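Ticket #4471: structure output looks truncated?

Reporter: J.K.
Steps to reproduce: submitted the chain below (222 residues) through the standard prediction queue, then opened the result file.
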Amino acid sequence: MRTRVKICCIASRAEADLAIRFGTDAIGLVGAMPSGPGPIDDATIASIAAAAPPPVATFLLTSETSAAAIAGHVEATGVSTVQIVSHIDPDQSERLARLLPVTRRVQVIHVEGPEALDLIPAYADHVHAFLLDSGRPGLSVPELGGTGRAHDWSVSAEFVRNSPHPVFLAGGLNPDNAGEAIRTVRPYGLDLCTGVRTHGNLDTDKLSAFMAAVRMADTDSG
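Returned output as attached by the reporter:
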């Protein structure tokens, strides 16, 4: 199976075009966050999402935690997919599925330990996919992504084996460890922000190296 790639923290239509030219399957558009890199305003998100050609998926990263607020954020930006970066109340996840029956819904799970596995049944009935990241949502200023830090991939691999849905892997990925991540975790896709950037900007050499590493790992796995 081909490993999908999502390039996150896209800041402009030029960055989106560059990521798409290098073969990304999805682009991540970061809304307002308590911390971390890459937030842009909703008007810019909407402009980038409207210009993205199919079949490239447009992911809105939202820190909203209620179903109504998340649905409103999606409607304001016109994206195809919403990435919910907080561990929201499962009742809100259920309600969101009713409010956004067409929009693809991806629940982020922050892997701080094996207890992440316990969240699978809490959300599985209401989402289309999971994304495993390395945030620390319990901090006084929550970390909800973009940490550039890897987590315990053995937990992630167990999550993939137990999940009824596709699983994206994020957190500290770069061209040097992409192959190891694919071989160890066997995710549906890889998601990264800082690992293909230099001084905050997308780096063509890093993008090229990352995509080549993914293709090589897929070939070796096949």
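Triage note (M.O.): checked the attachment and the full token line is present. The two ends are 7 Å apart (CA to CA).
Status: closed, working as intended.
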